[in-house]
Amino acid sequence: MAQGEHILVGVGAAVFRGEDVLLVRRAKPPLEGQWSIPGGRLEYGEALKDAVRREVREETGVEIEIVSLLDVFETPQSQEGGHMVIVDYVAEWTGGEPVAGDDAAEAAFVDIKTAMARVAWDTTRQAIRRAAEIRRSAGARS
Q1: What amino acid positions are annotated as catalytic residues?
Q2: Percent composition of the chain: helix, strand, coil (DSSP 3-state, to 5)
Q3: How many domains does the chain have?
Q4: What average pLDDT score do residues 58-82 get?
Q5: Residue 47's domain is classified under what CATH number?
Q6: Considering the domain boundaries, does residue 2 fall inside one?
Q7: Does the chain have fewer CB atoms within 10 Å around its N or its C terminus?
Q8: Which residue range(s) make up the domain with 18?
Q9: For the CA atoms of the chain, what is the radius of gyration?
């Protein structure tokens, strides 16, 4: 395997509290200053759902309940030098107030319109919209 030819697995969650979604502003490169849903890398031997709960907790202090798989995304040439596969979930807030931690500079629940304006990538905007639709169809609490 040549340098840069490796697979990285990431997890993320569109976390809802009522009609608001949780966003983080990244504090470290390569995505420093950009808003996104919370998430990070899967650790060796860790279950995907455990990883997403851990990442949300580390970045925001928020506890979640996973509702559904949202989607799987990939970037063949990630900024981290490998093929990145990202597994995103739809989740509901169960406790804690958002406080920036780990590699987040800020963490906040915002309404969907604000989220759409803050998030840098179309793929993430589409994921948030799809997560909101999944929630509605599942009759999630508000």
Answers
A1: 106
A2: 25, 40, 35
A3: 1
A4: 86
A5: 3.90.79.10
A6: no
A7: N
A8: 7-137
A9: 14
